[in-house]
Design a protein that fits this description.
Layout lengths: L15 H10 L5 H21 L6 E2 L7 H8 L5 H4 L5 H10 L1 E3 L2 E3 L4 E3 L6 E3 L15 H11 L5 E5 L1 H7 L12 H18 L3 E5 L9 H14 L7 E5 L9 H5 L5 E5 L6 H8 L6 E7 L9 H12 L5 E5 L18 H4 L5 H14 L9 H11 L7 H8 L12 H12 L16 H11 L5 H22 L16 H6 E5 L6 E4 L2 E3 L3 E8 L5 H9 L7 E4 L1 H6 L9 H21 L4 E5 L11 H20 L7 E6 L8 H5 L5 E4 L8 H7 L5 E4 L12 H14 L18 H20 L2
Parallel strand pairs: 1-6, 6-7, 7-8, 8-9, 9-10, 10-11, 16-17, 17-18, 18-19, 19-20
Antiparallel strand pairs: 2-3, 4-5, 12-15, 13-14
Helix pairs in contact: 1-2, 8-9, 16-23, 18-19, 23-24, 27-28
Bound molecules: glutamine (GLN) and zinc ion.
Length: 756
């Protein structure tokens, strides 16, 4: 049985690509050096797949920043503002990704959004009235040929036309259908070009097909592929879907003359039903996604082999595939030196998943796979109980009752009391929590972790940083301060490290956006808190100022969503366990005199199921209560903030309000403040701080710019409910730009206040 991989991590075993790109940004590496390193990485990644006998290896899954951005460049979807900079190609590419501020001009980056239900972010293609979609780039062809020169026949992967158009931002008044003809012709050219190169297979990714589709969408899908497929000639086309099932269009998809169709059997709850109900054409290959591309737990062969057998009985040609690109899991387990052998046995990262593919490919051909060593070894993990059960926590979760999820008094009364006790000016200014993690901060942590400095030394340094940070914020004139989060490597890892039930990797990085990677903890067992986590630093920070300093916590849903979740208990059970632990921390902070506590739910939106029908039953019905559980026992005077990255919560605005926080800050600047109309329409009661500038870009916003943004916000939001803040934490930014930006933020706010 042959095997396939949808995509491979591109960042490198030890994040080589990240470091190379970052030093290129700093001017320490030349473009040629960067291109050279990229080439080496691609070769290594292909070679590894060859070694594991993967039959269908992807090319063009490499990217310097993001594959959607690559596709926009390939298709000439380059807004004028970038073209006008007249930068060299790579410079223009990065200007689109990160914005540009220099001798050639000053432009914002493209909007950035989460890629379906992952923590990966793509850049939103921006089609302008004058844009002509056409094939202008060569990247997929170059990379295909590069592999070929190494003797490796790959299947180039490109993002499909429907997914691209549906994710793109369109000129006002246009529908994506108006660009259908143009994009079809571009894809016809792409395929013809591949045919000329002798390419055997091209993989076209259409993850949009797993979302709710309208009749018009399905019609567009049919029209697009009816026009593209006749040009394929000798090239075989694999239509690849992932992140769910294609229940809205299964029959339409299998009716088209694709040569292969990739279906996700991990997240696609309905995939097997669809296959059994409607069958699968005998002239096509089914690429069955059974190796989880999103989680790191070892595949349970006792479940997957029968699944594969069922799939096989409904198709004549089968290829074993990953469920989605392996981009969403870390690179290799080989770098992990601190996990025990027993723990490591439970995991597979990208490289090890290649082996799982190979093993499954062999086992499925065996008459009695259970007799094989690979099967037996695999089963030792699933037939014995894992360590990490905590009966006490399980009982607490079981005993939760409705009032544990309700905070009293209700919002309006709390708001009044908080206005009196906190006595903040109108349009209070604040930040989201973290301040730049400068090299001295990271060095201090690294030394402590290596045991080179004592805990006292480590803590003293952090306190020194906190003191400087408080002083800086007072000088800048912010109203509600933060301690700066210098003690935190990452907002989830930090809490995971202090709670029971988590385990940590050393090098298991996963790309989040551009060069930014995250290292999610693993929820290994039942979660509990044995002692206060943040109280000492928070209390210290508060002792240095008469202004409120926010206690800063990460919420249970975000901790769950940014960890690798368990597969042996439900997410609901897991998130309530975490919620109970964080609730204890909230009460400890309150008791220590912290009057404003921010509980970040940066990732709340992330795991919202892709289909509306599943939103409540599979997610919101436990995610919103999990947040309420965390703050339901605090006093009326204690102000609870929350923060969310990305404001794409238009459709769940009521549920966000029902989290019953007192204040919520969120990203808005990079999505054009679209959210604020929705807040008004829904009579949103929670006070809001829509980020007034984009922190994902190094550019410094001017006073004028921020003032205009605040004024725009005031048109829609009651001044009594509006806060002024950046749109996310500042840890990834440089100190200088942060200080300059915050000075401008405060100046702009003071200006606006004068006019109120
Ligand atoms: N408090 C966190 C910080 O400021 C929030 C980060 C986030 O939302 N991603 O870094
Ligand atoms: Zn954020």
């Amino acid at each position: 049985m042959t095997t396939s991989v949808i995509g491979y991590p591109r960042i490198g075993k030890l994040r080589e690509l990240k470091f190379a790109i970052e030093s290129y940004f700093k001017g320490d590496k030349s473009e040629n050096e960067l291109l050279g390193l990229a080439k080496t990485l691609r070769a290594t990644h292909w070679q590894q797949q060859v070694e594991n006998k993967i039959a269908y290896i992807s090319s063009n899954d490499f990217s310097f920043y993001d594959a959607v951005l690559d596709t926009a460049n390939l298709l000439n979807v380059i807004p004028k503002r970038y073209q006008q900079l007249t930068l060299p190609e790579l410079g223009q590419y990065f200007a689109m990704a990160r914005g540009y501020q220099g001798d050639k001009g000053d432009v914002h980056a493209l909007a950035m959004k989460k890629w379906f239900n992952t923590n990966y972010h793509y850049l939103v293609p921006e089609i302008e009235a004058t844009t002509e979609i056409k094939l202008v780039g060569t990247k997929p062809f170059d990379e295909y040929q590069e592999a070929k020169a190494l003797g490796i026949e790959t299947k180039p992967v490109i993002i499909g036309p429907l997914t691209f158009l549906k994710l793109a931002k369109l000129p006002a008044g246009q529908t994506y259908q108006s660009y259908q003809a143009q994009i079809v012709s571009a894809y016809q050219n792409i395929i013809t070009k591949f045919e000329q190169l002798g390419t055997k297979w091209v993989q076209i990714d259409e993850p949009i097909l797993v979302t709710d589709l309208s009749k018009e969408d399905i019609q567009s899908f049919e029209q697009i592929y009816q026009a593209i497929l006749p040009t394929k000639g000798s090239v075989k086309i694999l239509l690849q879907t992932y992140f769910g099932d294609i229940r809205d269009c299964y029959t339409n998809v299998i009716a088209q003359p694709f040569d292969g169709i990739g279906i996700d059997f991990v997240e696609g709850k309905e995939s097997l039903n669809l296959l059994q109900q409607y069958g699968f054409p005998s002239d096509k290959i089914l690429f069955a996604g059974v190796i989880n591309g999103k989680n790191i737990w070892r595949n349970n062969y006792a479940k997957t082999l029968p699944l594969l057998a069922q799939i096989k009985s409904n198709t004549s040609k089968l290829v074993i595939n990953t469920s989605c690109s392996l981009l969403h899991v870390p690179y290799t387990l080989q770098n992990e030196t601190k996990l025990t052998i027993a723990q490591k046995a439970y995991f597979t990262f990208a490289q090890e998943k290649l082996l799982e593919l190979a093993e499954l490919g062999q086992l499925i051909n065996e008459v009695d796979p259970k007799q094989h060593q690979a099967y037996k070894t695999n089963q030792t993990l699933f037939t014995r109980e894992r360590e990490g059960t905590n009966q006490n926590v399980r009982q607490k979760v079981a005993a939760l009752s409705p009032q544990d999820f309700v905070r009293l008094p209700e919002f309006n009364q709390r708001e009044k009391r908080q206005k009196q006790t906190l006595n903040l000016p109108v349009l209070p200014t604040t930040t989201i929590g973290s301040f730049p993690q400068t090299s001295d901060v990271r060095l201090n942590r690294a030394k402590f972790k290596k045991g080179e400095i004592s805990l006292e030394h480590y803590t003293a340094f952090n306190k020194q940083k906190i003191a400087e940070c408080i002083k800086l914020q007072e000088e800048i004139g912010l109203d509600v301060l933060v301690h700066g989060e210098f003690e935190r490597n990452d907002m989830v890892e930090y809490f995971g490290e202090s709670l029971n039930g988590f385990i940590f990797t050393e090098k298991a990085w996963v790309q989040s956006y551009g060069t930014r990677c995250v290292k999610p903890p693993v929820i290994w067992g039942d979660v509990s808190r044995s002692k206060p986590i943040t109280v000492e630093y928070s209390q210290y920070a508060q002792s240095l100022s008469n202004k409120p300093v926010k206690g800063m916590l990460t919420g249970p849903v975000t901790i769950l969503n940014w960890s690798f979740p368990r597969e042996d208990i439900s997410n609901k059970e897991s998130v309530f366990q975490i919620g109970l632990a964080i609730a204890d921390e909230v009460l400890d902070l309150e008791a220590a005199g912290i009057s404003v506590i921010q509980i970040d739910e940066a990732a709340l939106k992330e795991k919202l199921p892709l289909r509306k029908a599943d939103w409540h039953s599979e997610y919101l019905d436990w995610a919103i209560p999990a947040f309420r559980l965390v703050h339901s026992k605090v006093k009326a005077e204690t102000q609870i903030h929350t923060h969310m990255c990305y404001s794409e919560f238009t459709d769940i605005i009521k549920e966000i309000d029902q989290m019953d926080a007192d204040v919520i800050s969120f990203e808005a600047s990079r999505s054009n403040l679209e959210i604020i109309d929705v807040l008004k329409q829904n009579n949103f009661q929670t006070e809001v701080g829509p980020g007034v500038y984009d922190i994902h870009s190094p550019r410094v916003p001017s006073v004028n710019e921020i003032r205009q943004t605040i004024e725009k916000l005031l048109n829609k939001i009651d001044k009594q409910k509006l806060w002024v803040n950046p749109d996310c934490g500042l840890k990834t930014r440089g100190e200088k730009e942060v200080v300059a930006s915050l000075i401008n933020l405060v100046k702009a706010t003071l200006d606006v206040r004068l006019g109120l």
